[in-house]
């Protein structure tokens, strides 16, 4: 531990010297709290954060730098209270305020992702290379995004094209897992064409998870490679064409005899056309195929046993109507979803379905104080042979430094192909059966939010937001114990109604000299019918916090230090008492807090050095399982980043 802090002190020493000098140069950020950030996820039209009627949380590129996050999981956990990533059955599992991975829709630049494990996408695909910001909308968002958005949307926005060129290479090393993470990006513009390329490679050793009551002993070693290319061509001032392609590969060392391989190939083409000063249209096609295979180390045979392929076509139209002080957004989507899986009957049998939707949203701003939204959507799914309407209403009232937002939205999740057709002998222990008669999960979401922002003094800006919400679920889909041929198994089924209610609150301060602070708190309560188990696994209380100092002392030297952390309270989770599935019990998971100290120095404008100590107080859970973090104690990370364009 002493050696870790010695490394931090040596890195901080130049910053201390500069801070005591007389020739320091303070830089003033005109929007330190990000209220002027333009966001698109909440309404699918550009609006500044302070003017959007849908409560939206933004994690900026500066936030990512301040907390020195290693990946998307680390970033979300440090910035959003109630978010917890754990490890179960060899896969990462997410819980966000009682919602599991099934109900949180992850997007990259507004596009869906194929593939899942344990009802979660492969989070390894979501790296932070070339990210401009992350937009989070909590609560039902199905009116704009359809199925799986009933708990919220996380939209990862990549960087906009540069005017000339920019290039960066980076590398970091984490001591506990001996993990190396290397990244590079290149962005250049020639005439009306821009190219943006990113690449990331990760190599990590296994984690030995040995708690006093551990249900899991090892998180496997793995390697991954991820490359993406985006080409943007402005055919004219009114017409823009964007093409993209990406490839992802990950290999896990499950045993000496077998490695698991994960591949993804994605691409797309999008046309943006400004029909006039008041009208624009977007037409897009996207493709994403995610495969899993088992690689036999002795025979060198690579057998694919899972493939999820999605083809999506989309049209989106916006028109501003100044005479009516409003804007109309309308769109339609078509998706072909194909799934081949060893978990179907007659191994590697495939199923497919088509889904269609159309939606419209009316955005009305009668004056400077009011903004009202209303939306309607209809989706149809061929495999389940069902259609589902959703709708939303939202409003914002602004006066002086105060904003009040209120909304009602309905959400849904259609049963997946796996839930409809699964027929699988789980681990050679029990059967899991699909259910073709499943109904859609539905959610009714109500929220009320208050925001106050302004200046305490000439040098201090602040923002405070508090949100209360209520969710009512119907036909929640989960597995329930059934008995067939004298043996217990599990079948996907719709269970009784369930409710989730809670409060989110965030307060931020920023001083002219570069000192900032942010604290967020979340309370969640799940309400279930009598005799029904609570399946949310939501920790009732959680907090995140960050105290940071960020200052550019001169054109050749900048210094950034941040102390951040998160707290999650204890929770009791209903789990099966044995593999016989004939009894359930309540399992207690302790509350915990994890602190992180990170610092960064920019030298000669082109070199950035990073160092971080995570889990400062060496927390280790007693039981590594679905509701505990995979930390093995205090770890140290060091890294370096070079902006090649600034070097030359």
Describe what you observe in this structure:
- By secondary structure, the protein is mostly beta strands.
- It has a single domain (2-647), classed as Maltoporin, Chain A (Beta Barrel), CATH 2.40.170.20.
- It is 7% helix and 59% strand.
- It is built from six helices and 39 strands.
- It has a 22-stranded antiparallel barrel. It has a four-stranded mixed sheet with strand order 3-8-9-7.
- Strand 27 and strand 28 form a beta hairpin.
- The radius of gyration is 25 Å and the shape is globular.
- Residues 2-12 and 19-27 have low confidence and may be disordered.
Features:
648 residues; four-stranded mixed beta sheet; Maltoporin, Chain A; single chain; 7% helix; 6 helices; 22-stranded antiparallel beta barrel
Number of domains in the coordinates?
A: 1
Total count of strands? 39
End-to-end Cα distance, whole Å, is: 39 Å
Percent range for helical residues? under 10%
CATH homologous superfamily assignment: TonB-dependent receptor, beta-barrel domain
What fold name goes in the CATH topology slot?
Answer: Maltoporin, Chain A
* Overall form: globular
Low-pLDDT runs: 2-12, 19-27
> Which CATH architecture is right?
Beta Barrel
Our estimate of the beta-strand percent is over 45%
Class per helix and strand makeup: mainly beta
Mean pLDDT: 89
The CATH class designation is Mainly Beta
Radius of gyration over all CA atoms, rounded: 25 Å
Largest sheet: number of strands, sense, barrel closure: 22 strands, antiparallel, barrel
Number of helices: 6
């Amino acid at each position: 531990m002493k050696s870790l802090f010695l490394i931090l002190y040596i890195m901080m020493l130049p910053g201390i010297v500069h801070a005591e000098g007389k020739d320091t140069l303070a830089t003033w950020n005109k929007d330190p709290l990000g209220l002027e950030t333009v966001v698109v996820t909440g309404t699918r039209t550009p609006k500044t954060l302070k003017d959007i009627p849908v409560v939206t949380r933004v994690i900026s590129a500066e936030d990512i730098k301040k907390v020195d996050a290693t990946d998307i999981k680390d970033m979300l956990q440090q910035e959003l209270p109630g978010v917890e990533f754990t490890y179960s059955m060899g896969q990462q599992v997410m819980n966000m305020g009682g919602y599991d991975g099934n109900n949180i829709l992850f997007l990259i630049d507004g596009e869906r992702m194929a593939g899942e494990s344990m009802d979660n996408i492969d989070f390894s695909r979501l790296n932070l290379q070339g990210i401009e910001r992350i937009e989070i909308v909590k609560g039902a968002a199905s009116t704009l995004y359809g199925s799986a958005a009933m708990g919220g949307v996380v939209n990862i926005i990549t960087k906009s094209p540069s005017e000339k060129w920019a290039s960066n290479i980076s590398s970091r090393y984490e001591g506990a897992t001996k993990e190396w993470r290397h990244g590079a990006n290149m962005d250049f513009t020639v005439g009306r064409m821009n190219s943006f390329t990113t690449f990331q490679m990760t190599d990590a050793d296994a984690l030995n998870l040995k708690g006093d009551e551990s249900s899991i002993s090892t998180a496997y070693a793995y390697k991954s490679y991820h490359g993406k290319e985006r080409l943007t061509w402005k055919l004219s001032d009114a017409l823009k064409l964007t093409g993209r392609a990406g490839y992802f590969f990950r290999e896990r060392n499950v045993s000496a005899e077998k490695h698991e391989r994960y591949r993804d190939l994605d691409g797309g083409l999008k046309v943006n056309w400004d029909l006039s000063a008041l009208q624009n249209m977007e037409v897009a096609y996207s493709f994403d195929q995610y495969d899993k295979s088992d690689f036999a180390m002795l025979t060198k045979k690579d057998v694919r046993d899972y493939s999820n392929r999605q083809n999506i076509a989309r049209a989106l139209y916006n028109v501003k109507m100044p005479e009516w002080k409003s804007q109309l957004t309308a769109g339609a989507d078509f998706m072909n979803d194909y799934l081949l899986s060893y978990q179907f009957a007659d191994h590697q049998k495939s199923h497919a379905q088509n889904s269609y939707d159309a939606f419209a949203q009316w955005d009305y701003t009668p004056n400077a104080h009011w903004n009202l939204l209303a939306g309607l959507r209809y989706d149809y799914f061929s495999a389940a042979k069902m259609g589902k309407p959703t709708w939303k209403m939202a409003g914002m009232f602004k006066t002086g430094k105060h904003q009040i937002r209120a909304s009602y939205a309905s959400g849904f999740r259609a049963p997946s192909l796996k839930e409809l057709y699964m027929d699988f002998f789980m681990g050679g222990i029990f059967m899991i059966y699909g259910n073709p008669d499943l109904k859609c999960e539905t959610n009714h979401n109500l929220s009320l939010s208050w925001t106050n922002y302004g200046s305490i003094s000439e040098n201090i800006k602040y923002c405070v937001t508090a949100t209360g919400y209520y969710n009512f679920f119907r036909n929640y889909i989960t597995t329930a114990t059934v008995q067939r041929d004298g043996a217990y198994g599990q079948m996907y089924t719709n269970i009784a109604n369930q409710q989730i209610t809670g409060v989110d609150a965030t307060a931020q301060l920023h001083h002219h000299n570069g000192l900032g602070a942010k604290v967020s708190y979340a309370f969640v309560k799940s309400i279930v019918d009598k005799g029904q188990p609570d399946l949310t696994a939501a920790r009732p209380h959680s907090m995140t916090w960050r105290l940071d100092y960020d200052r550019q002392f001169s054109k050749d030297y900048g210094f950034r230090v941040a102390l951040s952390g998160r707290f999650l309270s204890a929770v009791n989770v209903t789990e099966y008492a044995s593999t016989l599935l004939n009894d359930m019990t309540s399992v207690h998971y302790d509350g915990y807090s994890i602190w992180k100290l990170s610092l960064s120095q920019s030298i000669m404008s082109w070199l950035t050095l990073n160092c971080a100590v995570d889990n400062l107080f060496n927390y280790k859970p007693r039981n590594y399982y679905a509701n505990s973090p995979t930390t093995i104690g205090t770890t140290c990370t060091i890294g370096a980043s070079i902006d090649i364009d600034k070097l030359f």
